[in-house]
Design goal:
- This protein is of the alpha+beta class.
- It is built from 13 helices and 11 strands.
- 48% of the residues lie in helices and 18% in strands.
- The radius of gyration is 37 Å and the shape is elongated.
Length: 473
């Protein structure tokens, strides 16, 4: 195989590949031999059919298969031996081929740009660690305790008040007649929450165990029996019990009911929970700082093909009018995203970062846990959508790269209080809101700037050659 490389403008390369006739004959003979073994021809012993006869019957198909294989083998080898990493799928233009002939083709490639990842060690970002004061942990535990119901039987003479649990049986009538659902047993209602029929629970204020209480209400508009909607009904309630909600005692038993080993264990869990609530948001700020710093790293040229592909992603679902209106700004955004992706990917490869199957499966299990009861649906979704798994793998890959950058770069660790964390997050939200509000003005400015740049750098597109696309086997 003879390879000649011609550098075109920018990242473009034309690679001329010549495969000699002897090599092509070897590939062809191997394929004919495979067919001959499984082909029986009358008058010839099995596996002994002459090549000329096979050629008459299968010649075109065999040549197509061999071409595919040779192109795949030789193009991959040519790129690897010359250390060329294509940004997109290379285009192949066949010049010469055929039975008894050498193969000649030109491979047009856009190469990935060189990226100096050593610069990443010099980027600056802040990494936050939140110190959770004990008082916030205790406040959270008290809130949990207050939300817990601890109802206990009241004394026989206790009259119900707001917050009490009243248990009763009832029979109801509307216009003096029974109706479907007009009887209920062991109905439980907490006075003051108004979760039954509107205004019902207020009428149970002051009742005691074994009281009979008549409650008059207007049946709701969405009542199952449509003919009774908005009509008056009388419920005769037999009060079987009244319970008082007692304050929950915060002790080891309380902690155990919440899944902790003891009260100290619960405090540790709650402190970690509060820390995690801030950690995720603050980590996102650190990540955005890193990505902004990465964007300052110079790359000579961003492959246009990748930019075009990214624009298609950005404009998915957009109307043509909207696309045309924001064309220049979309190109700027796409270039920025591609540039960042190239830098991250180069850093990942340089540091041998990859996502293992175990890591991927563990992340999928997390997705199951996030949707309890719907595990089967989530499993089927991933099985039917390979792109979803690829996206998940991509997210994990980026996360591992960012974590490695944090280790190597000049990150400044800042230990902050919960109040400081809230101030930082508030400022970040205000910044995002402000950025959104001035986005239109910035877009116009970027568009003018990009237009000037485009006029000074755009050249005429070369006439495209007709290429024969060869499918991969």
């Amino acid at each position: 195989m003879k390879v000649t490389i011609e550098n075109k403008k920018g990242l473009g390369k034309e690679i001329k590949v010549l495969v000699d006739k002897k090599t092509m004959d070897t590939y062809l003979e191997e394929r004919y031999e495979e067919i001959r073994k499984n082909y029986t021809l009358k008058g010839f012993r099995p596996g002994k059919a002459p090549r000329e006869i096979l050629k008459r019957q299968f010649g075109d198909a065999i040549m197509g298969e061999v071409l595919d294989k040779v192109l795949k083998d030789t193009s991959t080898k040519a790129l690897q031996e010359n250390k060329i990493r294509p940004a997109t799928q290379p285009k192949i233009d066949l010049k010469k081929y055929g039975d008894g002939k050498e193969l000649e083709y030109i491979m047009t490639v856009t190469e990935l740009p060189k990226v100096d990842v050593k610069q990443i060690q010099n980027i600056n970002f802040a990494e936050y660690k939140v110190k959770i004061d004990k008082k916030y942990t205790e406040e959270r535990i008290n809130q949990i305790a207050k939300s817990q119901n601890n109802f206990k039987d009241a004394n026989q003479d206790h009259k119900s008040v707001n917050g009490d649990l009243v248990i009763f049986d009832y029979k109801a009538k509307s216009d003096g007649k029974d109706f479907k659902g007009s009887e209920g047993k062991n109905t439980q209602l907490i006075i003051g929450r108004d979760l039954f029929i509107k205004g019902f629970d207020k009428q149970l204020l002051g009742v005691k165990k074994n009281d009979i209480k008549k409650v008059e209400v207007i049946l709701p508009e969405n009542f199952p029996e449509k003919e009774l909607a908005n009509k008056k009904a009388v419920f005769e309630c037999n009060i079987t019990n009244v319970k008082i909600n007692h304050e929950v005692k915060i002790d080891d038993d309380f902690a155990k009911n919440l899944g902790a080993k003891d009260l100290n264990g619960l405090k540790e869990l709650i402190s970690k929970q509060i820390d995690d609530e801030y950690k995720n948001s603050l980590n996102m700020i650190s990540k955005n700082q890193i990505l902004d710093e990465l964007n300052k790293i110079k790359i000579e040229e961003v492959p246009k093909e990748l930019v075009d592909q990214e624009i298609q992603v950005l404009t998915h679902g957009m109307k043509e009018e909207e696309i045309n209106k924001n064309k220049i700004n979309l190109e700027i955004q796409a270039k920025k995203r591609i540039k960042t992706g190239l830098i991250l990917n180069e850093f990942g490869q340089t540091n041998n970062i990859n996502v293992t199957e175990q890591e991927l499966n563990a992340e999928i299990q997390k997705q199951f846990q996030m949707m309890p009861g719907q595990e089967k649906m989530v499993k089927e979704y991933f099985e039917k959508n390979p792109s979803a798994i690829a996206s998940l793998r991509g997210s994990l890959y980026e996360e591992k790269i960012i974590n490695e950058i944090k280790k190597q770069a000049k990150g400044k660790i800042k230990e902050i209080s919960k109040e400081d964390a809230e101030k930082i997050l508030k400022a970040e939200n205000e910044k995002a809101t402000k950025h959104s509000s001035i986005n239109t003005k910035k877009e116009k400015k970027d568009t003018k700037s990009a237009t000037k740049t485009k006029k000074s750098t755009t050249s005429k597109k070369p006439t495209s050659k007709k290429t024969k696309k060869v499918s991969k086997k």
